[in-house]
Each structure stands twice: as C-alpha cells, then as structure tokens.
UniProtKB/TrEMBL annotation:
Protein name: Uncharacterized protein
Length: 74
C-alpha cells in the first residue's frame, strides 16, 4: 500500500517539476514540512529517505529559479 502511495507521489512530483518556478518553490516548502513532521513522528524511514532524496534533486533542478526553498529538514 505505502509503496503505491509513494509511487503516486513521485509521479505527481515529476509532473509538478514541469510547472513554474514559484509553484516549484511552494511544493518544495510543502515537502520540507512533510519530511520534517514524518521525521519527528518517526513513521517510515524509507519513505523519509525518498522524500529527502526527491527534495534534494528538485533543489538541484530549481537552481535557475529565483526563489528556492532553503529548508534543511533532512
């Protein structure tokens, strides 16, 4: 169940990366918050690792954007 949720999340994330820089920055902020709360509650370490990896990769891709979320939650 959770792996399918994760897959859907990845698909939505990739689709979002096509959007504008502002929307990408907003999504980064939201993912940072999700990653932070998941880490605090210590639910699924694998899912946390995936979220962190996605956050980092999107940060790398959105370097050219004027607004980049700098939340080091992971």
């Amino acid at each position: 169940m959770e792996s399918s949720r994760e897959f859907n999340f990845n698909a939505a994330f990739l689709e979002f990366s096509r959007r504008n820089c502002l929307r990408k920055a907003t999504l980064l902020r939201n993912i940072g918050i999700v990653c932070y709360f998941t880490t605090v509650h210590a639910r699924n370490v694998l899912v946390i690792a995936r979220l962190c990896a996605l956050e980092v990769s999107i940060k790398e891709r959105s370097r050219n954007c004027s607004t980049v979320c700098t939340g080091s939650f992971c």
